[in-house]
Design goal:
12 helices
């Protein structure tokens, strides 16, 4: 792997505490990345994705393969970090970027019902290739500034969401961006695997059974990459603690 990936050695409570510190500092906009097997594969050759990882405030192990390869103490998936942050009791203002409009609106309703300490202050479901339209991106940044959120959930899918966060973070007036894939859909109750499949590391199998046409090629590519590159990746060391945020 030409890109040297380093994982922050944090468990979920420590990751939540780090997020809260970034929000409280609010001196600049930061973002967190949560690598899974697909990320490892894409990082091999995608230089824009690599740059997004280099500039991230934290790199947290999402997925059992990443945890095992790098020896991370715990899986900290983006889809789990968001509700854990909401559960922390901190009073948060949140903006939702991504997902289909109906799912985003349903997620807003779920957040309002489940977390009284969290207020959704805005959101947008942009077109698939919106990041190529700088005028639209500037409009989104302006909308975020007017909404004054503490956290922006960026649910665009990898590597688009991480690359977008790196590109626009300097212009966003919010302390924390969380590029977390399908988290808005999951908050809306769409497609989350049962807890027992997550506990035994088989969430991927559940997703494969639900969407074989989309997930089978991805998982096959991920599996081949892990088989051929996993032993080399395992030689990389962990970062001893969270990097300077």
């Amino acid at each position: 792997m030409s890109f040297e990936l380093k994982i922050d050695r944090l468990r979920m409570p420590e990751a939540v505490a780090a997020c809260r510190r970034m929000i409280e500092q609010h001196d600049r906009c930061r973002y967190i990345v949560t690598p899974n097997a697909q990320h490892l594969r894409l990082l091999e050759h995608d230089t824009a994705f690599q740059a997004a990882y280099r500039d991230a405030a934290l790199v947290l192990a999402d997925g059992w393969p990443v945890r095992l390869i790098f020896g991370a103490p715990e899986r900290v998936a983006g889809s789990d970090l968001v509700p854990a942050l909401f559960d922390s009791g901190a009073r948060l203002r949140v903006y939702l970027l991504g997902a289909l409009r109906n799912n985003r609106r349903r997620a807003m309703a779920v957040i309002a019902e489940r977390w009284r300490n969290v207020t959704v202050v805005g959101g947008r479901s942009p077109l698939h290739d919106f990041e190529q339209d700088h005028d639209q991106c500037r409009e989104i940044c302006k909308e975020i500034a007017e909404a004054q959120p503490d956290v922006v959930l960026v649910a665009l899918g990898a590597p688009r969401q991480e690359i977008w966060c790196r590109r626009w973070a300097p212009k966003i007036e919010a302390p924390l961006l969380l590029p977390t894939g399908s988290v808005i859909d999951l908050l809306a109750g769409k497609g989350r695997a049962p807890a027992w499949t997550q506990a035994i590391g088989c969430e991927w199998l559940y997703r494969l059974c639900r969407e074989p046409g989309r997930m089978a090629p991805r998982y096959a590519a991920d599996a081949w990459f892990l088989l051929t590159r996993g032993p080399m990746l395992a030689t990389h060391r962990l970062v001893g603690s969270a990097r300077s945020a």
